[in-house]
Design the sequence.
C-alpha cells in the first residue's frame, strides 16, 4: 500500500469511527436504559431481547431517539398491542418489577409509556419531575403505588398524565394545577383521597378530566367552569358532597358530565338541562326537590340518568320539548303523577320509571 493510499485509508477509517460514534446513543443513555431494564421482569414475550449492542437508538424495542441529538426521546412499552411479538405469543403482556429512578438520567426524555403490564409495582420515581422535556406519562394498567410526585407541576411541557388503574394513593398535589399545557388527565380507579384543588380551573388546556373510582371528597370547585376546552368530566364513584356549581351548565364544549355515586345534594342547576351536555349522569346521589321544568330545543341527551335520588313531584312536561333524549332513567326516586305522552316517553321502558312514589301511565300501569 502506498503512503498516499495508507493515509487515505486512515482518514476514511477515522471518519467512519467518528460517524458511528456520533450516530450511536450516548453511553449514559444506554446505561440508564439497562438499569431500567434490570428492575423489570418480563417472562413471556422477550421484548428486552433486542436491547443489545452499543447503539440503543437502533432496533431496541420500544425505544426511539431524537434524530439530531441521538438522545433517547421516547420509551413506549405497552402490554397490550397488535405488534407481531404479541400476536406470535398469542397473549397480552405481563411484567413485574418497578420503574427504576435510572430513567431520570435520560435528560431528553419526552414520552414515557409503560402501560397495561398488570404487575409493575412500586412508586413513580420522584426524580421524574426533573425531566424538562417530558410531555407524556402513561402508566395505566399496572400496580403502581405511592403518591403522585409533589412537584409534578415542574413539568411545564406535560400534555398527558395517565396513571389510571393502579394503586396510587395520597392527595392530588397542589402543583398539578401548574401544568398549563395539560390536555388529558386520567387518574381513574386508584386510591386518591382528599379534595380537588380549588384552582383546578388553571388547567386551561384540559379537554378530558377522568377521576372516577377514587376517594375524592369535598365540593366541586367552581373554577372548573373556566376550562374552556373541557369536553369530558368524570368524577363518578367518589365521595364528593355539596351542590353542583351552576357554572358547569354554561361551559361551551362540556359534552359528558358523570357525577354518579357520590354524596352530592341540593337541587340540580337549571343550566345543566339546557347546555352542551349530552351525556349527564347524576344517579346515586342525594339530590332532592322538583325536577326543573326547563327543558327545551337545546336539550339533547344521549343519556340522562337521574335515578337513585330523592326527587319528588311530577315529571316535567317540558321534557317532551327536548330535541332528543335517547336513554333516560328516573327510577328509584319519589316522583308522582301521570307520565307525559309522546316522545321521548313512548320509546322508554317501564324500568326507566320504576320504584317511584306514585307514577302512572304508559309504560307503567294505567292511572286511576
Sequence:
Amino acid at each position: 500500500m502506498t503512503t498516499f493510499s495508507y493515509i487515505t485509508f486512515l482518514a476514511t477509517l477515522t471518519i467512519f469511527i467518528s460517524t458511528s460514534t456520533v450516530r450511536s446513543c450516548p453511553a449514559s443513555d444506554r446505561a440508564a436504559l439497562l438499569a431500567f431494564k434490570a428492575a423489570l421482569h418480563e417472562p413471556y414475550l422477550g421484548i428486552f431481547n433486542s436491547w443489545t449492542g452499543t447503539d440503543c437508538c437502533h432496533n431496541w424495542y420500544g425505544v426511539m431517539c431524537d434524530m439530531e441529538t441521538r438522545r433517547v426521546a421516547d420509551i413506549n412499552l405497552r402490554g397490550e398491542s397488535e405488534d407481531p411479538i404479541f400476536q406470535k405469543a398469542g397473549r397480552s403482556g405481563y411484567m413485574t418489577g418497578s420503574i427504576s429512578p435510572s430513567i431520570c438520567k435520560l435528560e431528553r426524555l419526552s414520552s414515557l409509556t409503560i402501560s397495561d403490564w398488570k404487575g409493575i409495582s412500586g412508586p413513580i420515581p420522584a426524580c421524574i419531575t426533573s425531566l424538562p422535556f417530558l410531555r407524556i406519562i402513561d402508566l395505566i394498567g399496572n400496580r403502581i403505588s405511592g403518591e403522585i410526585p409533589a412537584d409534578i407541576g415542574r413539568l411545564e411541557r406535560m400534555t398527558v398524565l395517565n396513571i389510571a388503574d393502579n394503586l396510587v394513593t395520597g392527595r392530588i398535589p397542589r402543583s398539578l394545577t401548574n401544568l398549563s399545557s395539560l390536555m388529558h388527565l386520567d387518574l381513574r380507579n386508584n386510591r386518591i383521597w382528599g379534595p380537588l384543588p380549588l384552582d383546578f380551573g388553571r388547567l386551561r388546556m384540559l379537554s378530558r378530566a377522568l377521576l372516577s373510582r377514587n376517594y375524592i371528597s369535598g365540593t366541586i370547585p367552581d373554577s372548573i367552569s373556566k376550562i374552556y376546552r373541557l369536553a369530558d368530566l368524570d368524577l363518578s364513584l367518589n365521595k364528593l358532597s355539596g351542590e353542583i356549581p351552576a357554572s358547569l351548565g354554561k361551559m361551551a364544549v362540556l359534552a359528558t358530565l358523570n357525577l354518579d355515586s357520590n354524596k352530592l345534594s341540593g337541587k340540580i342547576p337549571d343550566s345543566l338541562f339546557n347546555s352542551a351536555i349530552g351525556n349527564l349522569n347524576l344517579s346515586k346521589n342525594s339530590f332532592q326537590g322538583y325536577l326543573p321544568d326547563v327543558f327545551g330545543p337545546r336539550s339533547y341527551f344521549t343519556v340522562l340518568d337521574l335515578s337513585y335520588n330523592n326527587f319528588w313531584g311530577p315529571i316535567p312536561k317540558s321534557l317532551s320539548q327536548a330535541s332528543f333524549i335517547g336513554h333516560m332513567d328516573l327510577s328509584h326516586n319519589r316522583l308522582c303523577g301521570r307520565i307525559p305522552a309522546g316522545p321521548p316517553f313512548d320509546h322508554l321502558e317501564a324500568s326507566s320509571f320504576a320504584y317511584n312514589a306514585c307514577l302512572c301511565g304508559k309504560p307503567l300501569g294505567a292511572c286511576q
